[in-house]
Design a protein that fits this description.
Radius of gyration: 20 Å
CATH topology: A middle domain of Talin 1
CATH superfamily: NCX, central ion-binding region
Structural class: mainly alpha
Number of strands: 2
Distance between the termini: 42 Å
Order of helices and strands: HHHHHEHHHHHHHEH
Strand content: under 5%
Mean pLDDT: 81
Largest sheet: 2 strands, antiparallel
Oligomer: single chain
Shape: globular
Low-confidence stretches: 1-13
CATH class: Mainly Alpha
Number of domains: 1
Length: 372
């Protein structure tokens, strides 16, 4: 199952033997490699090069989704969605840490802006679109409520501990944690996320599956899955590096329209999370809403559970002040998101009503980021 049929695509002869050997579409083999070569070539120096990099970025996102679906077909759910969420988050975290290392104190709010953007994009943007598109096609969709409830409870805990509580501690003034507090929250984040992974894949796997709808993909051979795993990593690296290469263009565009600098973080977070978003939307269109919710909630949890420990260690080693506490506007939107998600995803069935509500909150987040 992919975006383009293997028999409908033609590519360079160099990729033909590989795609034939592993049963992968030729374009999905060539795009990640082309994307990596494009990032090595350098930053965009003209509008034409910027457009070419943007097109490669879009193609790399589609390639990542294609390979993630191959892996999911081999591993089954929820392992397939977990692999995609982990891969994207690890690379996203590496990007944040690399920027912190290069910019030092100038990047003290980068982790906070990325985390809140990721939560809003996944829980409101991706979930909202999946619910709306699924409802338009199937009227109502069902999922296993217990797994979603576990994920939302963990997400609420981690998001409040990392993004809200720093504003109310008294050992350090302002939206900051002390070194010991930051270390404690980093350990707690890892524990909570590890608990989620164990529950999702081992102890309570059936709570993250919905047996009412059969999967629509054929079994994938082990050789194809291994090749898709390697190409998925390459595609995701290409996505992050292309997004980073295009960030000066994005910054210039944001500055040109007079928008706040935080908008750059939203755009880049959206690009990095795009593979998961496309995979979730495809699942919703195939009446696999459980997969969509696993992707969205799992991605939000992975972003906090893996990013906070990594940036905490970086900040402690470099002696940086890591600004984690949200503004009152951010706290209000985060609280509204968690409250509404608990209500809308608390019944086991969804309609277009829930989707519209989440999209309204996401639109409010975007608008108030542009017009604070």
């Amino acid at each position: 199952m992919g975006w383009v049929s293997e028999t409908e695509t033609a590519d360079s002869p160099d990729t033909a033997p590989v795609s034939k050997m592993f049963g992968l579409a030729r374009w999905a083999v060539a795009i990640p490699v082309l994307g990596l070569f494009a990032t090595i070539a350098g930053k965009p120096g003209s509008a034409t090069i910027a457009v070419m990099l943007a097109l490669l970025l879009g193609a790399s996102i589609l390639a990542a989704v294609y390979h993630a679906e191959k892996i999911a077909g081999y591993l089954g759910e929820p392992f397939g969605t977990l692999v995609l969420a982990l891969a994207v988050t690890v690379i996203e975290t590496s990007l944040i840490v690399s920027i912190m290392l290069s910019e030092g104190s100038g990047a003290q709010a980068l982790a906070r802006d990325t985390l809140i953007s990721a939560i809003m994009i996944t829980i409101n943007g991706i979930v909202g679109l999946c619910l709306l598109i699924g409802a338009q096609r199937y009227y109502e969709q069902a999922y296993t409520q217990s797994g979603v409830s576990y994920g939302l409870a963990m997400l609420a805990t981690l998001s409040v501990l990392t993004l809200v509580l720093p504003n109310f501690t008294i050992s350090e003034r302002g939206p900051f944690y002390t070194g010991s507090q930051l270390g404690f929250v980093a350990v707690i984040s890892l524990i909570v996320y590890a608990t989620f992974v164990v529950a999702q894949t081992i102890r309570h796997r059936d709570h993250f599956l919905h047996k009412g709808i059969a999967a629509d993909h054929a079994p994938v051979p082990a050789r194809t899955a291994r090749a898709a795993g390697l190409l998925l990593v390459l595609a995701l690296i290409a996505v992050v590096l292309l997004a980073k290469a295009l960030s000066p263009v994005i910054e210039a565009g944001v500055e040109y329209i007079g928008a706040p600098a935080a908008v750059v973080g939203i755009v880049i977070a959206g690009l990095v999370l795009a593979p998961e978003g496309f995979a979730a939307l495809r699942a919703a269109r195939s009446n696999q809403l459980q997969t969509s919710l696993n992707l969205a909630i799992g991605s939000a949890l992975a972003t906090i559970g893996l990013t906070i420990p990594a940036v905490a260690v970086t900040a402690l080693v470099l002696g940086l002040d890591l600004e984690l506490g949200l503004s009152m506007r951010g706290i209000v939107l985060l609280s509204l998101t968690l409250l509404v998600a608990t209500i809308t995803l608390g019944t086991g069935r969804t309609t277009m009503v829930q989707g519209v509500i989440h999209l309204v909150i996401f639109a409010t987040f975007l608008f108030t980021s542009l017009v604070p």
